[in-house]
C-alpha cells in the first residue's frame, strides 16, 4: 500500500510539474551542420540548437541531402556521408554510431526524415518515430529550419529521459491526477511555451535596441552630412526622416515589454507585443548601419572602401552560388540555364572591375551604385525566367504550377530579413532582389509541395536498414516519409 501511495504521489507531482529534479540541462557539446540540400537558415538553426538542453551532454549533427524522388536511401546516404567526411561519428570498430552523438537528417526531394544516435543515446523505435513525427507538419510546409529545430528539441526530451518523464508514467499520472489536472498541465505547457517565445523576443529586441541607442548620436551626425544632392543620399535621408518616430515607438514597446510580469508573458497577446518590439529594434539597427555606410561611402570618408565592400557582398555571394544552381540535372538544356551561365561569366568579372574602378576613383559612388543596381536587376530577371522554366518542366497541371510559384515567391519574400543591410536594399522594393539562395530554397519547397499533393499517403513506415552498402553496420537509427 505504501508503494502504491508513493507511486501515486510521484504521479501527481509529475503532472503538476514538481516531479523529482532531473530536468534536461546539458547544452550541445558541439553542433555540426552538413546542409547538402541548401535548405537551412543556419543563424536561426544554430542559435536554437545551442539553446536546447539535453539530459546528457550530446553532440548534434544536422544533415540535409538532396536525393531523388521516390527513393528510400536516406539511411545509407547518411552513413556514406559519415564514412567519407565524418569518421568521428562512427565507433572505432565501424559498427555503431559514436557515443554521445545524435544525427538529425532530412532529404527534401525524397521526402524522408531520419534520426540516428550513439548506443548511449539510443531510444526505442517508437520514440524515434515520435522525434520524426515532430518535424513532419513543418517539413510538409517546406519549413525546413523550423522542422529541424522541432526534431532536435523532441530528441533532447526523449534521449536519456528519466523514468518518471516517460510516456507510460505520464499516462499513469494522468489517470491518477484526473482529467482536470490534465487540463491544467496542458495549459501550463502552453503558458511555458509563450514565456519561452517572449524571452527569445526580448533577447533579440534588447540586442538591437541597445545597439541603436548607443549609436543614436553618431547616427544623427551621419545623417546630417549625407549629401542630399546624391540620388542615394536623398533616398536614405527620406528613410531617416521616420527614424526618430520609429525609435520612439521602439522605446515605448521596450518599456511595455519589460513591464510585463512572468504571468503576463504567459499570454499570447503579450508575446505578440514582444515580437513587435524585437522586429522594430532589428529594423532600426539595420537602418542605422545603412545611414553610416551611406555617409562614409558617398563622402569617401575613412573606411569607405569597406563600406563599398559591404554593398557588393550579397551579389558576390550570388555569383559564387550560381554554378551549383546551373549544375542541377533538370536544368540542363534549358535556354534560361544558358543565359544565367553567360551572365555569371560576364558579370563576375564586371563586378570585380567595378570594385576596382570605385577604389581607384575612376567612377563616383553614385554611378557605382547605379551599376550595382543594374546587375541586381539583370540577375533578378534571369532568375525569374529560370524559375518559370523550371516550374513548367516539373509541374504537370495548372494547380501544380501555381503551388510551386507560391512556394518560390514565399521563399523570396522570407529572404528579405536575412540579407545584409545595404544602401540598395534599404531604398528598393523587395522584388528588385532575387538571391540565388532564395531561388534554391524556393524550388525545393515548391517541388516538395507538389510531391505532397501527388501522394495520398502522408507518411510511410519506418526504415531501419542501411542497405547493401552498409555492410555489417548496425547503428541505432531509422527514417520515415513525410
Automatic annotation (TrEMBL):
Residues 33-372 form the DUF5129 domain. It holds the Pfam family DUF5129. Residues 462-474 have a biased composition (Gly residues). Residues 1-24 form the signal peptide. It comes from Arthrobacter stackebrandtii. The chain crosses the membrane at residues 163-185. This is Membrane protein YgcG. Residues 453-482 are annotated as: Disordered. The keyword Transmembrane applies. InterPro entries: DUF5129. Keywords: Membrane, Signal, Transmembrane, Transmembrane helix.
